[in-house]
Design brief:
Elements lengths: L14 H6 L8 E2 L10 H17 L1 H7 L1 H15 L6 E4 L2 H10 L8 E5 L4 H14 L2 E5 L9 H11 L3 E5 L11 H11 L2 E5 L11 H4 L3 E5 L11 E5 L1 H6 L11 E5 L2 E4 L13 H17 L1 H19 L5 E3 L10 E5 L4 H10 L2 E2 L1 E4 L4 H6 L4 E5 L7 H16 L3
Parallel strand pairs: 1-13, 3-4, 3-5, 5-6, 6-7
Antiparallel strand pairs: 2-8, 7-8, 9-10, 11-12, 12-15, 14-15
Helix pairs in contact: 2-3, 2-11, 4-11, 7-8, 12-15
Bound molecules: pyridoxal-5'-phosphate (PLP).
The site of pyridoxal-5'-phosphate has 13 residues, from helix 5.
Length: 407
């Protein structure tokens, strides 16, 4: 294995420093970055510093005291994904971002929502809920034979049905598939269709630029590959959407001002998609995570994650009884496997007792994909740049023992 894999020290990433700044690395092999990555000390420091200030000054007073840093947090996210600070709304998580965006679309009966067979479970449930309540039609573009959405068929569907919105999850929760969001974006732009991208699993592990993607909305969360805290997310909102006057259905007194008995005025920026109350410590920590990722270099992060994923795919497929799902060119930071006669949730528990973190998924996480692959669920292994080859080897040994029944 090591012969085909560059040693950890050869990466353009200062692994030693980054691991020293990641307290969790000292005691666990954390391969659940698609769940929530290990936070770095600067991120944790940003949270505790602001909480201490809130305890000392009062919550609202601490917010005022840190107003410049809070304004800069919007800029940090804009630097990471393109756009400008006025196009960023902070939220609690990716699902909240997605729901705010979807709620802004003025659906009529029979309008079409066009999506893919690999879009995130909660997004699919929201589409079905809209279908039940408003009578919209939900269409799924077909996949190519080798996997991933067939963009030419998707473009045909856009031209044929003129959907009200197109929604694509960049990297699904259940595989390393990376969808071609740029090609879909170009089609949406030329058809003038609203385009919502779920970048929850891609943010922080690969370059994202909303101008290249051509999206109107991009939803994301802080805690996954960005290595921010739990409980914070954001939504990018394009100028097109702001100028069209689209606003979330349940806009509040932070997103709008109450101007008269029967009137309100939405504010001009993406902040109209926010709610009034915030855990500002988490927002500030998310900005630190964004700056941290930018300073490492998103290109270098992507290269290292892809290399660890291909190492995992290659070596796991050599273990008797292990089936590695999906294709070898799916190099987003998620590898899903089945282990013969072993329930993934039991494997998670066994590995956790050995200080190795992975996660388990059932069919309900990805109905289309797991049905197509004829599995009831899978074990999900999601490495990040701070994982070492030695950590991967320890996981492989542990899975080998489980699969041969030695453990
Ligand atoms: C692809 C994808 N989208 C959205 C989400 C939802 O993110 P959150 O839990 O922050 O709402 C997840 C969570 O795993 C995800 O994997």
């Amino acid at each position: 294995m090591t012969a085909q894999t560059p040693p950890d020290k050869d990466w353009h990433i200062d692994l030693q420093r980054l691991r020293a700044e990641t307290p969790g690395c000292s005691s666990r092999v954390h391969l659940n970055n698609a769940g929530a990555s290990l936070m770095s000390s600067p991120v944790m420091g940003a949270i505790t510093t602001h909480l201490e200030l809130e305890a000392e000054l009062g919550g609202y007073e601490a917010q005022d005291a840190k107003s410049e840093e809070i304004a800069a947090a919007y800029q940090s996210i804009a630097r990471l994904i393109g756009g400008s600070a006025r196009n960023i709304a902070f939220t609690e998580n990716a699902t909240a971002s997605f729901a705010q965006a979807l709620s802004a679309v003025p659906f009529n009966r029979d309008d079409v929502i066009l999506t893919t067979r690999n879009d995130y479970a909660s997004n699919q449930i929201q589409f079905l809920s809209l279908q039940a309540r408003l009578g919209v039609r939900v269409m799924h573009a077909p996949d190519k034979a080798q996997g991933g959405v067939d963009t030419s068929k998707m473009i045909d569907l856009i031209e044929q049905h003129r959907p009200k919105i197109v929604c694509v999850t960049h990297v699904p929760t259940n595989s390393g598939l990376i969808q071609d969001i740029q090609t879909v974006g170009a089609a949406c732009r030329s058809a003038g269709v609203i385009y919502l991208v779920d970048a929850c699993q891609s943010l922080g592990q690969m370059p994202l630029d909303v101008r290249d993607i051509g999206c109107d909305f991009l939803s994301a969360t802080a805690r996954k590959f960005l290595r921010g805290p739990r409980g914070c997310g954001f939504l990018y909102v394009s100028e097109r959407i702001l100028q069209q006057g689209l606003e979330p259905l349940f806009i509040d007194m932070h997103g709008a001002s109450w101007t008269g008995e029967n009137s309100y005025q939405a504010i001009d920026s993406a902040k109209r998609f926010e709610n009034w109350e915030f855990a500002w410590s988490l927002v500030l920590a998310t900005a630190v995570a964004a700056e941290y990722a930018t300073s490492i270099g998103i290109g270098a992060i992507q290269a290292r994650v892809a290399s660890l994923v291909s190492l995992l795919r290659r070596e796991l497929s050599e273990i008797d009884g292990v089936d590695v799902l999906g294709n070898d060119d799916e190099l987003g930071g998620i590898v899903t496997i089945t282990v013969q006669d072993c329930d993934p949730t039991k494997i998670v528990t066994r590995l956790r007792s050995q200080n190795i973190n992975v996660s388990a998924q059932g069919r309900e996480h990805a109905v289309f994909d797991y049905d197509k692959k004829k599995v009831a669920g899978a074990l999900r292994i999601s490495p990040h740049y701070y994982n070492t080859n030695a950590e991967i080897e320890s996981l492989l040994r542990a899975i080998g023992s489980i699969s041969t029944g030695a453990d």
